[in-house]
Amino acid sequence: MGELVREHCQPCDGSTPRLAAAEAAQLQAALDSDWESSERVLRRRFQRPDFASAFTLGTGIAPLAEREGNYPDLELGWGYLNVALTTHAAEGLTRNDFGMAAKIDRIASGPGRLGAGS
């Protein structure tokens, strides 16, 4: 996760290629094992003890998404937050999605773990 968490999302457009399955698998190995992926989406469910804790995690992800220009789908409910990452311009997964997942893992691991400049 160390290398991915330091990377910043790069702008994507219609010519941005999706990752090959082998490269995606290699990058996923650097993430928490709770991340699941398909050809197009990287997903993780975060369990929390209550609604407020799940909501707090979601609000921690929001400013990161704005800084990175990578906007995950967030589904919030009592005691959980589902996160789904994909690069719409590439119609699948790019390195940006894995970098964002690494940053989200860091946020989820504790308060104050990811500074404003990361």
Give a description of the structure.
The chain has helices at 2-6, 21-28, 51-68, 95-108; strands at residues 36-37, 42-47, 73-77, 80-85. Residues 112-118 have low confidence and may be disordered. The radius of gyration is 14 Å and the shape is globular. It has a single domain, classed as Gyrase A, domain 2, CATH 3.30.1360. The protein has a four-stranded antiparallel β-sheet with strand order 1-2-4-3, with helices on one face. The protein is built from four helices and four strands. Helix 3 packs across helix 4. With 118 residues, it is α+β, with helices and mostly antiparallel strands. The protein is 38% helix and 16% strand.
Short description:
It is built from 4 helices and 4 strands. The protein has 118 residues and is an alpha+beta fold.
Sheet of most strands: 4 strands, antiparallel
Top CATH class: Alpha Beta
Number of strands: 4
Counting copies of identical and different chains, the oligomeric state is single chain
* General shape: globular
The rounded Rg comes to 14 Å
According to CATH, the fold-level topology is: Gyrase A, domain 2
> CA-to-CA gap between the ends?
13 Å
Unreliable residue stretches = 112-118
DSSP summary: helix tally: 4
Helix content: 25-40%
Order of helices and strands: HHEEHEEH
Estimated structural class: alpha+beta
- Counted up, domains total 1
- Write the CATH homologous superfamily: Transcriptional coactivator/pterin dehydratase
Strand-residue proportion: 15-25%
Strand order of the largest sheet: 1-2-4-3
Average pLDDT metric? 88
